[in-house]
Amino acid sequence: MYKPLNVVEMESIQSLADMKKELEARIQALEAEKAALLEEIPNLREKLTVLKLERHAQALGNEVSSLKAERSNLEQEIANYTNPQQASFTS
Amino acid sequence: MPTCPTCHSKVTEPLKTWSTVEPGKNGKILECVVGIYWCTNCKTKFPYVVGKRDLKLIENRELQELHEKIKMMDKVKQELTKKIDQLEKEKTVVEGNLLLTRLEDRAENLKVEVSLLREVKREIEDMIDYLEHTPSFFKLQGKKP
Predict the structure, then answer these.
(1) What is the CA radius of gyration of chain B?
(2) How far is A8 from chain B (nearest CA, A)?
(3) Is B6 helix (H, G, I), strand (E, B) or coil?
């Protein structure tokens, strides 16, 4: 037997439907944001790794050049001691 | 639908019908409705039993009791229908609330997940920013005259 719903019941069902709609929209927005973040984070991690490697390479490059300079100074010093006259003329 | 016993054509309307009552087994009574039909095809009149039903003679008191019982059962049926209707409505509301609770839980979990992911992203971005905008010690050292 079909009985029509009264106003209060209809309002209650309407409010439930509205809340459901609102929650579904919120969930959809959050899922979209989650998906975007999950896509962005690996890219950012990769960028960070590249930057770290660049920084490391730069540091190594600087170290290598200062070592080369030190070696050249030492070589020069050795040359001065092995040939002091020549060294005094040149200096 | 009766058929003519002579030409086997179908006859729809009876000329006349009447009931006969005869005693049956176990105190029952058999009521037969008999009709007289006239075949328009071969002009034959023939009898045909339209319907039969078993009847039983009962005391008036017993019949009254049965009527009372039927009335009471009808009342019970109405009450049960009302109750079922009420329960159906309650069920709809409970189901709706349950669905809402599930959706709320899901939204809450997603909120936490998204907030964690945002935090991770911010940390990585901060590190990138630091590396991009802070000159390295060695770089500074190399630039010194």
Answers:
(1) 45
(2) 12
(3) coil
B15 contacts B37 by C-beta, under 8 angstroms: yes
Give per-residue pLDDT as tens, A33-64: 999 999 999 999 999 999 999 999 999 999 99
> How do the domains of chain B map onto residue ranges?
14-57
Structure-token pair, residue A17: 């439907």
Among chain A residues, the shortest Cα distance to B91 is held by A13
CA distance A43 to A38: 9
- Give the end-to-end CA distance of chain A in Å, rounded to a whole number: 117
Contact A37 B121 (CB under 8 A): yes
3-state secondary structure of A8: helix
- Interatomic CA distance for residues B9 and B30, integer angstroms: 29
- Alpha carbon A6 to chain centroid distance? 59
> What was the ipTM of the complex prediction?
0.70
Q: Which of B57, B65, B11 is nearest to B31 (CA)?
A: B57
Alpha carbon B13 to its chain's center = 41
Residue B105 pLDDT > 90: yes
Among B46, B44, B17, residue whose Cα is nearest residue B32: B17
- Residues 63-122, chain B, touching A (beta carbon < 8 A): 81, 85, 89, 92-93, 96-97, 99-100, 103-104, 106-107, 110-111, 113-114, 117-118, 120-121
B87's CB contacts (< 8 A; 6+ apart) are: none
Determine, for residues A27 and B93 on separate chains, whether the beta-carbon distance falls below 8 Å: no
